[in-house]
Design a protein that fits this description.
Blueprint lengths: L3 E7 L1 H4 L10 H12 L4 H15 L10 E7 L1
Antiparallel strand pairs: 1-2
Helix pairs in contact: 2-3
Amino acid sequence: MSKTRRCLLYTDGVTEAAGARGDEFGEPRLIETLCARHRLPAPSLLDAFVVAVEEFSRGEQPDDITLVVARART
């Protein structure tokens, strides 16, 4: 039985996205989002991250959101 591992690469535009209170999306929220959706196929996982960041920042994103998901089977 093979295991699937994922690698998520992201730019600071993801973690530094500002919320309504001026707080950042941050790495803890990034990890929480990944853990909640880790079984999704890569395209759906990427879409889920973009939606999560846009909802958090109320659609106001001054920086780029760049994400790459890599999958490996071991």
